[in-house]
Structure formats: C-alpha cells, structure tokens
Design a protein that fits this description.
75% helix; single chain; mainly alpha
Length: 51
Amino acid sequence: MKPSVLLISGAVVVVLAGILAAVTDLDVAVVRWVSCGPLGSSAAKQSEVCR
C-alpha cells in the first residue's frame, strides 16, 4: 500500500471515531435529561446519576 492511502485511511478512522464519541455523549445527555428531568420518576431523580 502507498503511504498516502494509509494516511487517508487513518484520517477516516480518526474522523469516524470522533463522530462516534460525539453521538455517544449526546445519547448519554439525552438519557440523563429524560431520566432526571420532568419525565423521570422520583426514584430516578434521587439516584446517583441525577445528583
């Protein structure tokens, strides 16, 4: 393989990993908002995650 192909492949992997991390953080924030927000139960709101 040419070095340029390896470099492009590495860049694509890094970009995809960054997108995955951003989506995962967004997903965790949405789940926390739903669980600890107005839709959450009182037990969920008192949990360790919501403190």
